[in-house]
Amino acid sequence: MKQINLVKPFQNRNVSRAIVKKIHDIAKKLLKKGFSEIKIMHVCGTHEHTITYYGLRSLLPNNVNVIAGPGCPVCIVPAREIDEAIKLSKEGIMILTYGDMYRVPGSYESLAQARAKGGKVNIVYGFLDAIKIAKKKREDIVFFGVGFETTAPITAALIFNKKIPDNLSILMSYRITVPAVRYILNNPHNLNGIICPGHVSAIIGAGAWEFISKEYGLPAVVAGFEPIDVLLAILSILKQIYNGNAELVNEYKRVVKWDGNKIAKKYLDKTFRIVDRDWRGIGIIPNSGWLLRDEFEHLDAREKYQVKVDKWIDIKGGCLCADVVLGKAVPTDCPYFGKSCTPQHPIGACMVSSEGTCSIWYKYGGAMIQKIKKSVNTEGI
Amino acid sequence: MCLGIPAKVVERHENIAIVDYGGVTKEVDCSLVPDIKPGEYVIVHAGAIIEKISEKDYEETVEILRELIQVTSNIQSDE
Ligand code: SF4
Do B40 and A1 touch (CB under 8 A)? Predict the structure, then answer.
């Protein structure tokens, strides 16, 4: 394969301008047809990052609104599961966690705060590092298994291939995005289209999202993570709305196959079983999580250490994180945003993770763009 | 954490590959994409390769974008 630039062509200014112009043309036509507010939801923290970092909302017509849905895997882990990790760390079992999870508040404190008080907590880049550390150390180690369909398969693969040393077990907190999107669409909503997460789709396949168009009659586009990928997805959704279509389009063909990664799916299926799980502040979403299959249950940290937390607090003092995750609110709807709630002193999980919508808006000025957008007219680019 | 990063495979040893993120190299797991070879491009996610980047589809997309640039130059000269 020759040398190719994987990023630059998808950030080109002239191309972006051309797409934005097309978006405005079609939005104007849609406005004439009575579409005064078109709401498109994406379900990936990295999409929110691209949209806010590149200021894409400020380029969109006033009748086109892109909102963040359940795309942050750290934000939706119930406080109970963080409390479980903290409890173990204080009992002298080393917890290995992703950096993003480290500062997310549990019911009373975060893993970072627990460590400051003597809890055993360390940050790792991935499950592979956890295995390496466990092999070097003699002590008991628990990997905090958090993430969506992108992160779960490698854990499944390494468990299935028997690469786990005896002193390592997993606190299973994996969640599945497809049922969460279904949950949103099963409840009253005013969405006109969905941008599907590119890398989740690399695993599960573009086809896994076809239900959005087939069952719910909404346009859906699997998109990559450069600004042009997102703009093309928005344009495709607007075109479909204008033509009265609802299809699933795969904009991210360079990475996502229709069937996804069959090997990864096989590992998920053979190692994990799908169960109903609760999402932080939201409640139970059917079939939205993974636990280990019986033959691997000895690797489940909850079983191994009989860790149990009966009472927990998901949402504190008026934090709107659950609504932000479901796309019912934006961070600026929350009175604490940027005031008493900042990444240094977060109240909710959405202000901590690099994929949390509140944290992204705080860092890259999402709030400012919201204000600017309200004051410009639909015509201007 | 959910961030998938494009990279080029430079070395391959059983279940481990060395990838290059454009200057920075790192050891990653390739159990999920066992048929990768040095020189190929991949997406890496939390220490594991999750998929290959298809050169054919990449080229096709870039070609569409090139056509769009042509359109834009026309738009700009019209303005
Ligand atoms: S700004 Fe803070 S308190 Fe408000 S919704 Fe976001 S995380 Fe919760």
Answer: yes
Fold of B5-78: SH3 type barrels. (2.30.30)
CA distance B74 to A26: 19
Q: How far apart are CA A283 and CA A200, in angstroms?
A: 22
Distance A319 CA to ligand 1 centre (A): 5
> Counting atoms of ligand 1 from 1, which one is nearest the CA of A334?
4
Q: Is B47 an interface residue toward A (CB < 8 Å)?
A: yes
Entry field: residues in chain A: 381
Residue B27 carries which side chain, given as an amino acid letter?
E
Domain ranges of chain B: 5-78
C-alpha distance from B37 to closest chain A C-alpha (Å): 10
Q: In this predicted complex, what is the ipTM?
A: 0.85
State pLDDT tens for residues A8-63. 788 888 888 889 999 999 999 999 999 999 999 999 988 998 999 898 999 999 99
